[in-house]
Design a protein that fits this description.
Mean pLDDT: 83
Radius of gyration: 14 Å
Distance between the termini: 28 Å
Number of strands: 5
Low-confidence stretches: none
Number of helices: 2
Oligomer: single chain
Keywords: Plasmid
């Protein structure tokens, strides 16, 4: 859509360049080892093929909304039923310059000048 994201949405996530790959690796159960990916877009998260929340003009989501959507797309009916049961800040990981994957919750605090 090309719209500019408001600067107040997720300033910590905004530290990553647009297009930065995020991932989630399933750690147990039937989906253990499966990986889902998304990308940072304007301080929010873009999931390929997702049209965004129904009540939003944006095609991108908050970290928790993106986790919920990505999990439902990957696991289908096996996904959690609780729409608030996802902590996207711990669900998604980004790769550091040292090639380590860490949760986006560990991005340093950042304040705008």
């Amino acid at each position: 859509m090309g719209e500019k994201m408001p600067r107040w949405l997720n300033p910590k996530l905004g530290q990553r360049d647009n297009g930065t790959t995020l991932r989630h690796v399933y750690k147990r159960g039937e989906y253990e080892g499966d990986v889902v990916t998304a990308h940072v877009q304007g301080e929010r998260i873009n999931i390929s093929g997702d049209t965004g929340p129904d009540n939003s003009d944006y095609t991108t989501r908050t970290p928790s909304g993106a986790a919920r959507k990505a999990d439902r797309r990957h696991r289908g009916v096996d996904a959690r039923d609780d729409p608030y049961g996802y902590s996207g800040w711990d669900w998604w990981e980004y790769q550091t310059e040292d090639r380590e994957w860490i949760p986006i919750s560990e991005l340093p605090e950042w304040t705008r000048p």
